[in-house]
Amino acid sequence: MPVRPLLGVAAGAGLLLFGFAAAAPSAASAVSAAPEESVTVDSKGRMADGSVTLSGTYRCHGGSGPVFVSSAVSRPSSTLHYSVGGTKAVCDGKKHRWENTGTVPAGALKKGPARVEATLMELRPSGLMLLPVVHAVQHRDITLAED
């Protein structure tokens, strides 16, 4: 096997592992965001035609890389999360609304209780790589309603 593809796979796997370790704190620990940085999740989400829409607010200050609000949803008792898009954040210290819409597999979710995680994350340049830096995280139980 040629060396270049092997190096690419190894580098990609390393970045993924490092990114997950940096971006996913354990349930027992809290992300220490600056007090003026936050992300919230609205108490209701919407479902329509296989898509889910989640929303909330965020506040952040300038970073050295792009910042995004990402979200994921799951059934309350499940460990399987479904990514629901991402929104580019404007980090000017003001409170802004975010809304993410994404599709989930048919039958994966139903109206009623759900669990959402929203993450305010920066992709900070570090040499030749972009490293994920978490600014704020919120976990919240919500209600999914059909449109």
UniProtKB/TrEMBL annotation:
Pfam families from the UniProt entry: DUF6299
Signal peptide stretch: 1-23
Domain of life: Bacteria
InterPro entries according to UniProt: DUF6299 (IPR046266)
Domain DUF6299 per the UniProt entry, residue ranges: 35-146
Keyword annotations of the record: Signal
Stated name of the protein: DUF6299 domain-containing protein
